[in-house]
Model the fold of this input.
Amino acid sequence: MSDSNVASGITAWVDAIRRDRKASIGAVLLALFVIVGVFGPLFAGDPQALVGIPLQPPSAAHWLGTNGQGQDVLAQLVVGTRVSLAIGFGVGIMVVLIGALVGVMAGYFGGRVDGLLSVLFNVFLVLPGLPLAIVIAAYLPSGPLTLALVLVVTGWAWNARVLRAQTLALRQRDFVAAAIVSGESKRRILVSEILPNMMSLLVAQVIGSTVYAIGAQVGLEFLGLGDVSAVTWGTNLYWAQNDSAILTGAWWTFAPTGLCVALVGFGLTMLNSGFDEITNPRLQLERAWRAHLGAAGQKAGRSTPVVVDRG
Amino acid sequence: MRYILRRFGFYVLAAWVALTMNFFLPRLMPGDPATALFARFKGRLSPEAMQGLREAFGFTHEPLLKQYITYLGHVLKGDLGISVAYFPSPVMKVIGTGFVWTLFLAGSAVVLSFAIGTLLGVAAAWWRRGWVDTWLPSALVFVGAFPYFWLAMVALYVFGFTLGWFPLGHAYSDDITPSWSFGFAIDVLRHAVLPVGTVILVTLGGWLLSMRNSMIAVLGSDYVNLARAKGLPPARVALRYAARNALLPSVTGFGMALGFVLGGSLLTEIVFSYPGQGYLLVQAVRNQDYALMQGIFLVITLAVLGANLCVDIFYLWLDPRTRESRS
Amino acid sequence: MCIDYITDRGPVRAIDHVSLDLERGEFLGVAGESGSGKSTLAQGIMRILPPPAVITGGEAIFEGRDILTLDEEELRKLRWSRMSMVFQSAMDALNPVITIGEQITDTMHAHGDMSARAARDRAAELLEMVGIPGDRLDAYAHQLSGGMRQRVGIAIALALEPTLLILDEPTTALDVIVEREILEEIRGLQRKLGFAVIFITHDLARMLQFSDRVAVFYAGRMAEIGPAEELRTSPRHPYTQGLLRAFPSVHGSTVEMFSIPGTPPSLRNPPAGCRFHPRCPVAVELCSKVSPELKQIGPGHSAACHLAK
Done:
């Protein structure tokens, strides 16, 4: 693919996202948080600094109040964004890479390889993730790397399962079957026939896995399994719970953080379902069909509609 | 029957993997976790008792394989070691106290959420672009994006702390002794509303979407079209033909999501100081009580595997094709 | 009748001003290549075409009533009790998780009061009628062979003794012997019960053996219609002639083997004039400019060709 091809491909995607309401909402939300994550810490000041009396409600000086240690909640939120998003996206990508490796191998080679790998990811799929993550994390030094590791270990199996199914489906398709029959090497078929046709699914999986990674990461940190002296969304919530935020009525110490987690997750999910609408020909057709009926002043019913052509 | 046996075999394998991980994790980790583990007991126990404890945990100087076999033997006897956080209670006993509560909380939340979400999914797909289909999925996806425990905190803050409609935590009031009485049941329900409600709220969107999507696919199938062409009443087409079939992939997904939802339910327990496994898990993490952590992991794994087996049996009833004894 | 498929680049006309009359108890064949719109027509008549289809005009008079003006409930009552259909793929048309018995009896319950016992007996009777032992009522679709499933489809279609039975390529998935058996059975049942049949297939040769009258479709339009005997001996439309030449007159395989050069046109951009002219061996200049009307060339025999006399 040449550079201009890539450029026009990206332009086409941007156009498609702009046309779809869900995708636009998702893209705007995501962009907002990425900007905050990248540039925010430069302006937020030291999140660890003790700036005031603990547990003060929002005020002009501290827009989101102070937490139980007397630190600025907004500064902690902004600085936490960077680490939480970085781990989220990092884990999202890793999980899909591992899932792709295992799933595509299982689906492509079949036979004994498939049997073995399938059992492997099915076992990991059925083991409860959170307790397993806790057991692993507890033995390791706490920190972002440990978190990322346990999230990858507990999160890859689902992607492997989906990608195996997709590989099996692609193998049945004519162009891949033709390549197999014509004796192309397995690696060439994988790289030039199967992977390109998986791109949109892979992107969707990275997005979905990032949602998972952010949520699970915040959950583990909330349990105290992260580095509790670092500033991340999860540890913010950990301290809020530890400082009995609810029983002291200090809603501002936990509400904004959870809202941010949800907005990022919601944005990513919207982006994903927007992509689905853009790329799914059936949904496109149905939309055109409904628009056509709407223009004729009819509603879609269960039987084939009759629109008398006056043209 | 072969289908169930095969599934059962798979779950035994999964359980074995969990056991083996439990055994090797402490031994693979950097440093000497065994020593760290027993450092906490120093001074509280005589050296002989320490040695006995080491053996009870399987940390001896014997070859690894022998240790492994000893460990498996202990687990099979229900001996998961001694809890540090609740010293000197055996882990099994500690877990036993909270197990029923977790089962109750997670079980009722998961079943209710799946039932409601699935019904909503049927409605959304049947009345395509109706109000259920237009607003509910997006709204529930938004709610579902919140961390379980955060929503629990908000619910507790609003309905418990500010409005005072529901109790602030625990499974039942301190001034009531557990008994099989109506009053106690009401008290337990009152305490369960918020935790169960938040778990339902967070997970509802997922079930709705999965049922809606599989129902839409089924509605496009030939057999549903034939059912329509046969002039069957719409309710029969929607439920007996479309929803009945759309349930199949949804139930498969249900089994796979169980472990994940359970994790969220554990976190919710913590917020409500609900006396289940989640609460114990925090105690275990805070006190570096490895034996308890591993015990909880094991017991929850077994519970999830058991629940999955139940789902499989339900699926067997649902889909006659799995009843054939084809290999 | 006209039927459009709405796409994101505008509507595509799949059925273009097609008109069909059917006598009571008649066996009408509809032939054409895939994509000629014949299956669309079948489902359009019953108004069960899924999105993105829209019926854009015309009328479909059935027993004195226009199906296109009926509301949902009227349609529901009409369906199956008066007209029924056998779908192309029996595997996909049978519900995999409901017994075939229930799939037969529920139609009876939906269209009238009937005791469960009586409905079951009647369903067993229907199965026997299409050559399946009556005790297979509690079988599921996956337990039956392909031919058996298609027979179940026919049993379901005949459950309420309709006056019109539409067969949408009911035998494409079956082998030749089973196909023949099933067709003969339908023909026999039709003589016995007296319903009318619209039989849709791409296999013109086979159809000519079984039908009273045959309509040939090309690219969403009717090319020729006439008595089966006449079409076999003296087809007037060059397309019909081509089709007949393409098939060995001895009923051979079910494989589509057209010796007509070229491919059917895209319905999105149909050629001007006669839609067949790019592939027509005898086309003249007029054919590429003016679309030929269907005109009568004999008793009950019409063709849409400028050259037909």
In short: The CA atoms of residues 178 and 301 of chain B lie 28 Å apart. The radius of gyration of chain B is 24 Å. Residues 96-287+298-319 of chain B form a domain with the MetI-like fold fold (CATH 1.10.3720.10). Chain B touches chain A through 63 residues (CB under 8 Å).
